[in-house]
Sequence to fold (365 residues):
Amino acid sequence: MATTTAPAASTPPRAIDPNKLNAFLGRAVGDMGAALHSAVVLMGDKLGLFRAMRDGKPVTSQQLSERTGVRERYVREWLKANAASQYVDYDAATDTYSMNAEQAFALAEDNTALDLPGFHYMLASLMRDGDKMVEAFREGRGFGWHEHDKDLFVGCERFFRPTYLMHLVSEWIPALTGVEAKLKAGAKVADIGCGHGASTILMAKAYPKSKFTGFDYHDASIESARASAKRQGLQDAATFDVSPAAAIPGSGYDFVTTFDCLHDMGDPVGAAQHIKKALAPGGTWMIVEPIAGDDTASNLNPVGRVYYSASTMVCVPASLSQEVGLGLGAQAGQKRLTEVLNEAGFTQVRRAAETPFNMVLEARV
Ligand SMILES: C[S@@+](CC[C@H](N)C(=O)[O-])C[C@H]1O[C@@H](n2cnc3c(N)ncnc32)[C@H](O)[C@@H]1O
Fold:
């Protein structure tokens, strides 16, 4: 399918600027440390090492070993690795380690605005998928969300949920025109591409008079979402069904949401057209997408760096695996997303809110 051009056996030597080389290598060493530390973070999360330090009290490796049941020699090396990455603090005078409040907030506390280990589950899953993805790239075919190692779904929920917990009910919904009042009074809501249902469940908790249905084409994610709603006693308020976005059943939805998934779809225009038909007159669609500028150069920053890599490994392959395969990418930007929405007949599109990682668009007919 794809044509390949063999690289030349040898290329003519090019002049090296030692200062530029050193600067690049300095940066690369930082990246190597960060990349390797990802495995160390996962280890700490799975073994409860971060959580055992969240009280902030200094511990020796022996004390942390006793708290967690993990062999002292392993704990000692793990602590040094975390100190070198500044994920824990080290006091040389007492040879003890501690987590400051900020480190604990990001790595060890429940229900905060950040769950950093969740990100590393996603990363680990992509490493596991590596060879399969190389084949997909080589052959030029897509690689669906459902084809990934399951830690992508687990990590996605863990890493995205805290953002929704912090912003969705308190900021994003109130920033929309007239939606909060409808939800408080009782509205019919579809959360499309809901994954493990974190957003659906948070909304169902906040607006008990409304009825929420989460849809996703990935059956295993829908099963997890159902189980999660049941665990929280919300199985009636938040129900879940397997469906691609372009075919969700029902009509008369007062409010439709898509969280970080429109750009993953192969045919976002087709999905948008279907959403337009499914909305009640005067209904609103809230589209949460990665924050991005409208051109490549404006996304070459730390946040865009995270997103472009995620987009290369997850979002573009996901879209290419589906019909049409538009491949918007995670950094499509508001202008391109608005074109998609306009093409489907949404004439009113505006940015209602944003965070350093997300933009929230409101689309109405
Ligand atoms: C990055 S995840 C986001 C999941 C969830 N909305 C969240 O924010 O945690 C993208 C989701 O879109 C779903 N998805 C991709 N294409 C879809 C389609 N055409 N129809 C429905 N769901 C789709 C995937 O299965 C996946 O659950």
Remarks:
- The longest helix spans residues 18-46.
- The chain is about 45% helix and 15% strand.
